[in-house]
Structures are given as structure tokens and as C-alpha cells.
Amino acid sequence: MTIEIRGLSVTYPTGLFGRGKPFQALDDVNLRISKGSIMGIVGESGSGKSTLGRVILRLLRPSAGQVLIDGQDPYASEDPGFRRNVQAVFQDSGASLNPRRTVGASIREGLDIHRIGTPAEREEKVVHLLEQVGLSASYATRMPHTLSGGQRQRINIARAVALEPKVLVADEPVSALDTSVQAQVLELLAGLRRSTEMTMIFISHDLSVVREICDRAAIMHRGKLVETGAIDAIFEHPRHPVTQALMRDMPRLDVPVTLPTLSPQPTGLAYVS
Amino acid sequence: MTASASSIRKFTLPKIDRLSLSLGLLVIIIGGGLLAPVLAPHEPNAVNMLARMRPPVWMEGGSWDNILGTDQIGRDLLSRAMWGTLTSIGIAIFGLLFSAALGIGLGVLAGVLGGWFDKIAMMFVDVFITLPNLLLILCGIALLGTDVWVLILMIALVRWEAYARLVRGQVLLLRELGYVEASRVLGGKPHWIVAKHILPNLISPLMVMVTLNFPGVLLMEAGLSFLGVGVQPPTSSLGKMIGDGRDYLVNAPWIALVPSVVVVLITLSFQIAGDALRDRMDELNNV
Amino acid sequence: MSEPILSLDQLNVRFATSRGSVAAVRSADLAIFKGETLALVGESGSGKSTLAKALIRLNDAPFSQARAEISGRALLRVGNEVIDLVSASRSQMRQIRARQVAMVAQDALSGLNPVVRIGRQVAEALQSAFPGLTRTMLDDKVVELLDEVGLPDPGKIVSRFPHQLSGGQRQRIMIAMAVARGPQLLIADEPTTALDVSVQARILQLMKRLQAQSGAATLFITHDLGVVANFADRVAVMYAGEIVEVAPVADFLRQPMHPYTAGLIASVPGSHRQFPRLKGNAPDPLSVPSGCAFRDRCPAAMATCEAAPPMATPTMITQANRQARCWRTAA
User: Fold this and answer.
1) Number of CB atoms found within 10 A of residue C75's CB
2) CA distances from A79 to A53, A84, B192 (A)
3) Do B1 and C63 count as a contact with CB atoms less than 8 A apart?
4) A261 to chain C: nearest residue by CA?
5) pLDDT tens per residue across span A223-252
6) A84–B187: do the CB atoms touch at under 8 Å?
7) Distance between CA atoms of C314 and B99, rounded to whole angstroms?
8) Three-class SS of residue B287?
9) Which chains touch B (3 or more CB pairs under 8 A)?
10) Residues of B with CB below 8 A from A90's CB?
11) Which helix or strand (DSSP H or E) is residue A191 part of?
12) Is residue C327 within 8 angstroms of chain A, CB to CB?
């Protein structure tokens, strides 16, 4: 589904009785996301990137402007199909799962809510989804607190794609994960996009992660959209000072890496100096 | 935090014994009450002038016929205590249930609906808290009569606001949780979220609250009956028995003491059990 | 420069948990030299934070939950003396925490008392290090210090409360409190993980500057290899409680010696991928595989790996040394 964002603003009143200067969480944002692409929304904390995600998810009503998903405004009509088309994965994998429910029950929740298929069919789908995210079927009966952050995030992804959404909003999905696990979850998301042609919105403060998975990126600063473009273009020729500052401050591993030469025999630990 | 708590605990009985002891006592007493129709040795209202004012069996003049003695018109105190327990507990339980239902209902609605409904509901609760309980109940009984259901309703009004506030607070807290938001995104309507995510989390604090409130409710009924505005004859409860025995405290103190001891044992056991339950729940939550 | 300021000798840290005894740090040997920044890298559960906390015996403090059993030696060089941090008495440790070793934690909000003004807190931190100063002298020093760490308008900040400041500002204050006492060793436990990239860059610059001025050594704990590349002189990598590789940063990045490290570098977004990325998960601390802890996930595992590969103990540890705990990659 294509997403078109027009003149989107979210304003909060501040001060006593709202008489202070209003806070612009989003300020006249215009963006177009084409079907099947992965758009990165990049910015520091307070830039408005998460707010944008919440508006798209219909969790937060904008003060001005529109979000059109395939031409429809989700706020104009209470479209019941909306929830099946737009799903999310959030940053805190643990908080997103009810600690008293099994993994299987959580993954199934969307199916249960919309009464899709018979209970037996839903169980089967849970197994299928677990496999899709690289976990064995035995995970269905486990409790979230026994799992690692990476595993929990996979479960959140399984739950989100259970409804076969056309749009997936991922808000800092890997920021809280270890490096090696980040890579695995990113591969999973990229793979899902390939197999399902979902449109993905990938919100992150980490440019290097965004580069890994996104086709295009939109840079935000204090509620405003300051630059958009194809991902390589932004990396190679950042135009806006904010983008340039982000690139400059990004810690990089620029050194070309050769990986270890492995000797075929154990050598005992001769000491290398 | 755990380190300092466990060092204080050295001076009290180990928890597991407190819990078993109090629960055991409760089972015996409440079991006795529940099984009164089957186990009571005599009819509670059977007048027997020949055996009037007989002391308990371990005192001079007592007999195994009336193990805990008889009252001023010869009614067996053990049987009366058992039936009285049944009545008192029945009233207390119903009172609690109504109380909890009212409080939970309002609390959930206030927490979920928010806005002006919440404001008005909380103002209502605040007003209720300021009203003196006993006065309110006496007025209610004066207006509505002394039927046992009126009594239960009045008792329900005693602590319902505590449930309302607890539940509303919990709902407000739980509303912000990640998995509740995730449920909204999945398409969960408010009733789904309340049923699947909010109510299950309320069970533990509610159970603790109910356990701790029970003695208070029991005592409220006992107090009212003692004053004469609770249960009316021929129904009898523990409170009523104490009230009836007031006149004989000098000559036959056991008439008032037997039901008093039962009341004390029940409330004490509930307190200890509730306390231990809360400790156990805290431990589980700190996993 | 030739003698290490801190050297760990077979340091072990065990915890008793409800599910069994966990060896969070196993046989750690490490040396930190004066004036250098040694990055301690590892993923969740690797034991890096546990190691750092064990060095200042944080678990000894009253009100701490877990009881840690620390064995082995951690030799700190103080002037001409050498003190073993593992066996030092409580009062010795208090002295050491006051003057010799300072720690900056990840979450500045939890390190600062929310109901005490900034000025007072910093002054309290300085008091133990400068017992002779009067109240006014102390206050002046506080303002000087806050200016030194780049806080704007330090005169105003001293009367603010922690929650009124941003994350970056709070972290600068924590750093100020730590370095003010002139420690010889600064332990920084993921100090910039919760901060924005630009703030992180500036905080790291600040730390570098302060270190150059004081000549202190820094043990910098992080999971972010980008930070390691730009900020550290040497790096030690931990996996499942063990130190598996130690090397100067440039050598380490050019050619890592341990398959785990190689997989980790390959996993960083944007890195060249001739080596397979890490698959699977780190082992549960309660059930670490025998022999080499990494062999279940290692693309280069052999039969010999069932016996735990030792880390070389050279006759003389210098900063140019490279060590790896692997049967395959030595020499």
C-alpha cells in the first residue's frame, strides 16, 4: 500500500492552562512511501519520528494534515479493516508481551480478536509463523520472561505479520538488542519484505542500521522533515546540515576488515606478539 | 531491599508456619460454621429451661451435653456459635461480593472511559469516603428496615470505594503498558483489552484486598448486631450473641465470651493469612 | 608505561541464584596500563558489567541483593604499593573508591539523588577527596568542575535538580564527579549507550580530553564496536564469562583472531562480510558448554575444541600483545 503524508502536524499545548508556547511534535510533514519499499525515518530523540509512527498507526490523532493509506484516511472513517492492514513492532520487546500469557497466545492475539479461522487453524498458523521467524514450534508454550531480547522481538514480529498486514511500522525494533542479534532480526525483516511485499516504515536513530535495510530515508529534526532521498544518496551526499551532523557523529568501523586466517590444525597457543 | 527485609524477619515466625496455622484455624472455624446444619449437637433455638446458664464443660457445673455451656434460656452455645458463624460469615461474604462488584465495576469504567465519567465517578467516591460509615449504615437501616438483604447492602457500602480506587489506579497503570498498546494496534477493542489484559492482572491485588477487608466487614456486622440493628431474632449471628450476653457478664460471662472468642479468632486468622499472602505475592513479583 | 596499573589474575565471580550457581566471570586475566583506554566488549550476559562491578566490590555494599563470590586477584598499583582489590578490607575499598578508582554508570539518573540539588551532590563527591577545603572553596571548585566538563551556565546548574537536565548533561555531571577526585583508573560502564549519537560523540570527546590531561587509565565497557574503533586504544572481548581476545584496536579491527570476534565485527551493519555473521544465541549462564564455550556456534570448530583452549600467558604482558583463546588462530 502506498502511504501519503500531507501537511501532518501534531501540536501539544504547554504551560499552565495551555497558555505557553505550543510544542510542535510534528510540523507540516510531507512524505510519500511507495508500495513494497522500506522507508527509514531517522532522527534523534525529540525529532518526532516516533510521533509520526504513532499517527500512522492511528494511535494518535494529528492536529493538522492527513495520512492517506492507499488513498484512504484512517481517521476519517472508522475502517474496521485498517487494523488488519497496518501493524507494528516496538522497541521494548519485553514490554510488548503480556508476561502472563504464553508466546503462542500472544502471537495468536490478532487472529483471536478478528476471529480468523477456527481455533485449530489459528494454532497451526502460530506454528507456521514461529518457523517463519526462525524459532521452533516448541516456543509456543513458553513464557516471555524466559526468552532473550532477540527471541522476544522475533515473537513480536510473528504476531505483527500474523494478520498479513500490508504495512509494518517498526519503531526502533533493534535498538535494544545486542549487535549480533540486531543483524539477525534485520535479516528477518528484510526477508519478510521480500516474501510478502509489505511496505515498511523503519524508525531508528541509528543511521548504520537504516543503511543496512532501507531503500530510502527521511531525516527528521525537531518535528520537521529536513531531507529525504535514496539511502545511498543520503549517505554519500548528505545535503542538510542536520543530516551531515548525524553522519559526522556516527561512530563508524571504516577500517577494511580481513577475517582471521584459520589454520587447519590446532597449533596450541603459541603466543603472537 | 530484600536484604534488610530478611534481616527483620528473623524476629518473627517463619512465614510458612504463620500461613498454615492461620489457614488451619480458619478452616476449622469456618468449616464448623458451614457444617452447622449437620454437625451441631443441638438445635440453636431449642429452649431448655432446665439447663439454663450452664457453664462450659471444663468449669464446675458443666456437662458434656453442652460443651460450651448454655445461655440464659438454656440454648446450647456450641450450636448457636456454629450457626452464628454461618450467619455472620454468610452476611460478610455477600457484603464483600457486592462491595467488590460495585467497586470493580465503577473502577474499570472510570479507568477505561476516562474523561468526564472518570471525574464524576471519583468525586462520588471521594464524597463517600468522607461519610462516616456507621452513621450512613444506621440511616440506611432506619430508612430501609432490618431485612437481612438491607444489612448486606449496607455492609457492602462500607468499603466499596477502596476497591474502586484500587481498580481504577491499576487500570490507569495497565493502560500504558506496552502489551496493551500492542493489543490496540492489533485491533483489540476496549472490552477485549479489559478482559484479556487488565482483569487478569487485577486478581492478585484484589484477592489480597478482599482477604484483608474480610475481618472489617465481619466486625461491622457483629457491631451492628450487637447494637441490635443487625440481624433480628430468630436469626442469630455472633454479634447478636455477644449483645444478648451483655446482661450476664457477671454471672455467666461465657454467654458473651464464647462468640467473642470466635470473632477474635476469625479476624486474627484472616489478618495473619492476608499478611502472609501479601508477602508471598511480593516475593513472587520480585522474581 | 611498562607496568600495568591494574592486573587481573584468574579473576572469578560466582553468583548463587535460585536456579543454581552461575559463573559470571571465569578465569579472567587482564592488564590495564596507565594513560590508555581499554575497551571491554561483550554482549548481554558476557560478564563485562559483572567484572567491572567486581573490581570495585560493588556487591559488597550494604543493601545489595546478590552475594557475589570473588576469587583470584585484582592487583591495583597505588604509588609504590600494590593492593589486591579482591582481598582488600572494606575500609581499604572505601578509600580506593574515594581516591583511586572511580566509576561512571550507564544511567546517570539512577546515580544521582533526585531530591538533592546538583551543586550539593558534586560538593559531597569532592569532599571525600579534598577534606581540607572550606565550604566556599568547595562551591567554587564545583562551578569550576562543571565548566570544565562543558556544561553551559554552571552557576545556574548548581541549583537545579537532576530531572531538570538532559541525559547528556547528567552524564557530564557523573563524569565530573568521577574525575574530580583524580582517580588513576576510571571505569565507565556503557556511559553513552542511552544517549543520542551527537551527544555521545561529544561525551566521548570530553572523556578523551580529560584523560589526556590526567593520565588516568580508562576501562570502557561497551557493546558498540563503532565506539571502540573511535575511542579505545586496546580492546578485550568477553564471551560467556571469559576473555576471548585482547589486542590493540587497529590490529583487532584489521584482523581479529577469535571466530566470535570476527563474527561480531561481521554483524555490525555495513561491515564487509567475508566471514559468516553470528548465528544463534549466547549460552545460558547456567549451561555453558564444556571446553570452548563458543564451539556450538563456531563455523571453525574442530574436535579439539572439546578441550577448553587456554589464553596464552606470556612472560611479559605489554600493550602490543595480542592474545586469543582459540586453538585455530594462534600464530
Assistant:
1) 16
2) 19, 10, 18
3) yes
4) C329
5) 999 999 999 999 889 999 999 988 888 877
6) yes
7) 75
8) coil
9) A, C
10) 178, 181-182
11) helix A179-196
12) yes
